[in-house]
């Protein structure tokens, strides 16, 4: 059993389960942050006086 000052005791299995859930949530948050970071840094190209943006799949979209 694991005892802490401010919570009820939990078993080792419960603690490991909570750690695994926290790890999965952290991974999801990291993936979301990576996605938002990519969306923040848009790459703008100007070709023949037309403005294009580079998409995640390396295609171009016209403004």
Task: Provide an overview of this structure.
- The chain has 63 residues and is α+β, with helices and mostly antiparallel strands.
- It has one domain.
- Helix content is 46%, strand content 21%.
- The protein has a three-stranded antiparallel beta sheet with strand order 1-2-3, with no helix packed on it.
- The radius of gyration is 23 Å and the shape is rod-shaped.
- The model has no long low-confidence stretch (mean pLDDT 83).
- Keywords: Coiled coil.
Sequence-ordered SSE layout with sheet pairings:
Layout: H1 12-40, E1 43-47, E2 50-54, E3 60-62
Antiparallel strand pairs: 1-2, 2-3
Keywords: Coiled coil
Coiled coil: 12-39
Short description:
The protein is of the alpha+beta class. The protein is built from 1 helix and 3 strands; from the N terminus they run H-E-E-E. It has a 3-stranded antiparallel sheet, with no helix packed on it.
Assembly state: single chain
Profile the largest sheet.
3 strands, antiparallel
Question: Percent of residues in helical segments?
Answer: 40-55%
Structural class from helices and strands? Answer: alpha+beta
Order of helices and strands: HEEE
Number of domains: 1
Specify the number of helices. 1
Strand order of the largest sheet: 1-2-3
End-to-end Cα distance, whole Å, is 60 Å
Number of strands: 3
Provide the residue-averaged pLDDT. Answer: 83
Shape label: rod-shaped
> What proportion strand?
15-25%
Radius of gyration: 23 Å
Q: Unreliable segments (pLDDT under 50, ≥5 consecutive)?
A: none
């Amino acid at each position: 059993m694991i005892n802490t000052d401010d919570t009820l005791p939990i078993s080792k299995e419960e603690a490991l389960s909570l750690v695994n859930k926290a790890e999965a949530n952290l991974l999801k948050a990291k993936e979301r942050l990576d996605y938002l970071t990519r969306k923040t840094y848009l790459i703008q190209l100007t070709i023949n006086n037309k403005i294009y943006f580079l998409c995640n799949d390396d295609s171009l979209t016209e403004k």
